[in-house]
From TrEMBL:
GO molecular function per UniProt: metal ion binding; metalloendopeptidase activity
Protein name according to UniProt: M48 family peptidase
Highest rank taxon of the organism: Bacteria
Keywords (A to Z) from UniProt: Hydrolase, Metal-binding, Metalloprotease, Protease, Zinc
Organism the protein comes from: Propylenella binzhouense
C-alpha cells in the first residue's frame, strides 16, 4: 500500500437522469446521486472526491471473499471490481457499472471475514438485480410525475384565482408544493424495496456457498444501535433504507432456517482477515490507536505486522526493516512481507536494496501487478542505465495486470524518456493523465505522441483513442 493514495477511478459527473429544472431535486438528493449504499450516506457520493487506495494483499483477500458470491449470483470472475476507499465510516456501495466500493472503516471494524462477506453479498445483490439502472429509470419516471403534479397544481392555482375562488387557488398552491414531496417518497420507497431485494439475494448467495448470514445480520445490528436514539423521531417513509431493526427482524427468521447458520470462517481466512486489519491500522490509524489495538504484550503475527508498518510509516526505516525481517523469518513464503520490505527500502532512498525483496514478492504473489510496478520504480530509481530495460519490462508487465494504475504510467514515461523513446513516453504520460481525469492535458500529450508515431500502429491507435475521448463533464 503506497502512502500516496491515487485516484484509480472517477465516477461520471452525473449518474442521474436530468429532471426538469426545479422538479424532483429532493428526490435526487434522497437517492444519493445514483449510488446504492449499504447504509445511508452523509452526502451524495458524486459531490465528494473518492480517495481510492490500492493494495495487492487486501485486494486479493477481497477477491477471494467475493469469488464464491459472484459465482452464485451469476457474475463472472471478471464481472465486478472491488474498490477500496479510505473512509472511516462502515459502508459500501455500488455506484457505476460493475464496481463495488468498500470503505476502510468497514474492513477495520469487521471482526470476521463473514461480516465483510455479508456486506459484499448484499452489494452483489444490487449488481445482479440491475438496481442502479432501475433506480435511474424510476427517478426519471418520478421526475416526470412530479413535473406534471407541479404543473397541474400551478394550473389549478391560476384557474382558481382567475375564477375568484380563494379556496381553489389555495388548493392549487398546496398541490404544487406537495408534488416534490410525493416524488421524493416515491423514490425512497423504491430504494427501500431494492434494499430488501438485495438482502434476500444476499441470503440466497450465502446459503448457496455454504456460508452463514450471521455476519450480515451483525452488521445490521450495528446500524440498529446507531439509529436507536433517533428512531423515535424518524419517519420510516422518509428513509432511503429500511430501519435497521426492521431489516434484522425480516432477515433473522429466514437466515435462522439455513443449515449454515452456525457455519464459521476457516482458520486460514480468519488469519488473513486479521493481517488485513493490522495492515490497515498500521497504515492509516494514529500511532496511539495502533498501540491500543496492538499492545507490546500482543506477539501475534498480525500485531507484529501492524507495528512494523507503523515504524516504516513514522520514519524509522532501519527499525522497520529489522521488524519486517523478523516477520519474513516467521513466514518466508508470505509475498506481502517481502513487498513491505521493498517498499520501506525504496521510500527510504535505498532503491537498489529494494529490488531483491520486490522480485521475491512478485514471484510469490498470486496477482503481482502492483508489486511489479513498484519493482519497476525501484529499478528506475537506482539511476543505473543498465537497469532501464528491466524497469520498462517490469512496469509494462505490471500495467498489463493493472491498466488503471496511473502512477505506473508516470514511472513508465520516465523510463522510456531516459531510453530516448520520446513518443512512447508521451503516450504513457497521456494514458496516466486520462486515468486521473486530466482529459485536456492527456489529449495534449497524445497529440504530441501521435505526430511522432507511425500511422496505424497500435501506439498511434492508442493515442487516437485518447484524442477521440469525450469528457463526460463537457457533455
Amino acid at each position: 500500500m503506497t502512502r500516496r493514495a491515487a485516484l484509480l477511478a472517477r465516477l461520471p459527473s452525473s449518474l442521474l437522469p436530468r429532471p426538469p429544472q426545479g422538479v424532483a431535486r429532493r428526490a435526487a438528493a434522497a437517492a444519493l446521486a445514483g449510488t446504492i449504499a449499504l447504509a445511508p450516506a452523509a452526502a451524495p457520493a458524486q459531490q465528494r472526491p473518492l480517495p481510492v487506495i490500492r493494495d495487492a494483499e487486501i485486494e486479493q483477500l477481497l477477491r477471494d471473499y467475493a469469488a464464491p458470491i459472484f459465482k452464485a449470483a451469476g457474475i463472472g470472475s471478471r464481472g465486478a471490481e472491488i474498490v477500496i476507499l479510505k473512509d472511516p465510516d462502515f459502508n459500501a456501495f455500488v455506484a457505476s457499472g460493475s464496481r463495488i466500493f468498500i470503505n476502510t472503516g468497514t474492513l477495520l471494524q469487521a471482526k470476521t471475514p463473514n461480516e465483510v462477506i455479508g456486506v459484499l453479498a448484499h452489494e452483489t445483490g444490487h449488481l445482479a438485480g440491475g438496481h442502479l439502472q432501475n433506480l435511474r429509470d424510476e427517478m426519471a419516471h418520478a421526475a416526470t410525475i412530479g413535473m406534471l403534479g407541479a404543473l397541474l397544481g400551478a394550473g389549478a392555482m391560476v384557474a382558481g384565482a382567475g375564477a375568484g375562488s380563494t379556496e381553489g387557488a389555495q388548493m392549487g398552491a398546496a398541490a404544487a408544493m406537495i408534488a416534490p414531496s410525493i416524488v421524493e417518497r416515491s423514490v425512497l420507497s423504491y430504494r427501500r424495496a431494492q434494499e430488501i431485494a438485495a438482502d434476500r439475494a444476499a441470503l440466497s448467495y450465502l446459503d448457496a456457498t455454504g456460508q452463514s448470514a450471521r455476519g450480515m445480520i451483525d452488521t445490521f445490528r450495528t446500524f440498529a444501535d446507531q439509529q436507536l436514539f433517533a428512531k423515535q423521531y424518524a419517519d420510516p417513509y422518509a428513509q432511503s433504507h429500511p430501519m435497521a431493526s426492521d431489516r434484522i427482524a425480516q432477515l433473522e427468521t429466514a437466515a435462522g432456517k439455513s443449515r449454515y447458520w452456525n457455519a464459521s470462517d476457516p482458520p486460514a481466512l480468519l488469519a488473513r482477515h486479521a493481517m488485513m486489519r493490522a495492515k490497515l491500522s498500521g497504515f492509516i490509524e494514529s500511532p496511539g490507536m495502533v498501540a491500543r489495538r496492538y499492545p507490546r504484550s500482543d506477539t501475534s503475527l498480525a500485531a507484529e505486522y501492524a507495528r512494523a508498518i507503523l515504524a516504516y510509516r513514522t520514519g524509522s526505516p532501519a527499525k522497520a526493516v529489522k521488524q519486517i525481517d523478523a516477520l519474513i523469518a516467521r513466514a518466508p513464503s508470505d509475498p506481502y512481507f517481502h513487498e513491505l520490505k521493498g517498499q520501506a527500502l525504496l521510500e527510504s532512498g535505498r532503491a537498489r536494496e529494494a529490488i531483491a525483496p520486490l522480485r521475491q514478492a512478485a514471484s510469490l504473489a498470486p496477482k503481482p501487478g502492483l508489486i511489479r510496478i513498484m519493482l519497476g520504480h525501484a529499478l528506475l530509481q537506482t539511476g543505473d542505465p543498465a537497469l532501464l530495460d528491466q524497469a520498462v519490462g517490469s512496469l509494462q508487465a505490471g500495467l498489463r495486470d493493472e491498466p488503471l494504475a496511473s502512477e505506473g504510467y508516470r514511472h513508465l514515461a520516465t523510463a522510456l524518456a531516459k531510453e530516448g523513446r520520446i513518443a512512447e513516453a508521451e503516450l504513457a504520460t497521456a494514458r496516466g493523465l486520462l486515468i486521473e481525469g486530466s482529459v485536456s492535458s492527456a489529449q495534449a500529450y497524445a497529440k504530441r505522441a501521435q505526430a511522432k508515431l507511425k500511422r496505424g500502429t497500435p501506439a498511434w491507435l492508442q493515442a487516437d483513442d485518447i484524442l477521440a475521448y469525450k469528457n463526460p463533464k463537457s457533455r
